Amino acid sequence: MGGGPATVQQYLRAGLVDELHVAVVPVLLGGGERLLDDLQGAPPLECAEVVASPAVAHIRLVRR
Q1: What's phi and psi for 54, nearest 5 deg?
Q2: Quick count: other Cβ atoms within 10 Å of Cβ 8?
Q3: Considering the entire predicted model, what is its pTM?
Q4: What's the pLDDT tens digit per position in 7-56?
Q5: What do you get for the CA distance between the two ends of the chain, in Å?
Q6: Which residues contact 40 (CB under 8 A, 6 or more apart)?
Q7: Measuring CA to CA, which residue among 63, 8, 3 is closest to residue 35?
Q8: Nearest-CA neighbor of 35 among 9, 3, 11?
Q9: Which pLDDT score is estimated for 33?
Q10: Do 61 and 22 meet the contact criterion of CB atoms below 8 Å apart?
């Protein structure tokens, strides 16, 4: 899937995502948008794996 937070949120709310890989980089680029906001009715996600380094954190979320 490609797109920004609004696209990801639509897929999550529709229950079309089984697994989500998020790469978090400690860089602030403007105000940004919250990826996991406004998810009423979406199946819950749980953290399955975190791999972190000083440059990036890779977080794998899976649907329960």
Answers
A1: -65, -20
A2: 19
A3: 0.83
A4: 999 999 999 999 999 999 988 888 888 888 889 888 999 999 999 999 99
A5: 20
A6: 13
A7: 8
A8: 9
A9: 85
A10: yes
The CA distance from 24 to 63, in Å, is 19
Encoding tokens for residue 58?
A: 């890779």
What are the tokens at 25?
């980089």
- Which candidate, 27, 28, 23, 45, places its Cα nearest to that of 36? 45
HEC string for 11-50: HHHCCCCCEEEEEECCCCCCCCCCCCCCCCCCCCEEEEEE
Inter-residue contact 51 to 18 (CB < 8 Å) = no
Tokens of 5: 């937070």
- The SS3 call for residue 3 is coil
